[in-house]
Amino acid sequence: MFRVTASLRSIVLLTCALLLPLTMLGLGCDEDAPPETDKPEKADPPPKQDTAPSGPSEKAIEDAEDRAVGLAVSRFDRAQFISSNLEAAQEEDEPSRPTPRKTTGSLEPKQLREVFGQHNSAMQSCYERELKKDSNLEGTVELSLTIATNGSVRRTRVTGGDLRNDQVHECLKENARQWTFPEPEGGAAKVRKPYSFAPNR
Predict the structure, then answer these.
(1) What is the spatial distance between Cα 37 and Cα 34, in angstroms, rounded to a whole number?
(2) Domain ranges of the chain
(3) Which DSSP letter does residue 164 get?
(4) Residue 155: how many CB atoms within 10 A of its CB?
(5) Does the pTM exceed 0.90?
(6) CATH topology for 109-197?
(7) pLDDT in tens, 45-82
(8) 10 Å Cβ neighbour count for 191?
(9) Which of helix, strand or coil describes residue 146?
């Protein structure tokens, strides 16, 4: 029993003697190696922000405003141009109105009677032509004449009377336009001649 115990003790001591140098060698290596320190992790760089403005730049806005102003001015000028052309066209289309001529001249009553007497039969024919269509046609007509400075009849109008027949009126005026009077004194003259028409009964 004593021998077995002594043998075990010898084995244990031998094992320890072999392991001790190895253990010390491992410790020495550990002491020579610098201690490891926790290296800080590199932080990821922040994402780059888009420095460009979200909206249009000031220059782009100014350019757009300039174009808008230019377009507005162009349209305004075009509207004025069209308006002026329309006004000019209207002025050209409108007929020129003759200025009224003053009738300050005059003729002697004898001169008027002579001319009217020469054309009484033609004026009576205007009435008799329509009397055939209407046996009860009768009445008076007042004829106004404007006589030019050369004696020609410049204008004729029916200005009164109670004979209501357009055909008679037109015939009287058409005949009177063919007349020629002596030249009035003092300029153009205006005269009136009454007619009375009735059937012969």
Answers:
(1) 9
(2) 109-197
(3) -
(4) 16
(5) no
(6) TolA/TonB C-terminal domain (3.30.2420)
(7) 555 555 544 455 676 667 766 676 565 545 656 656 56
(8) 20
(9) strand
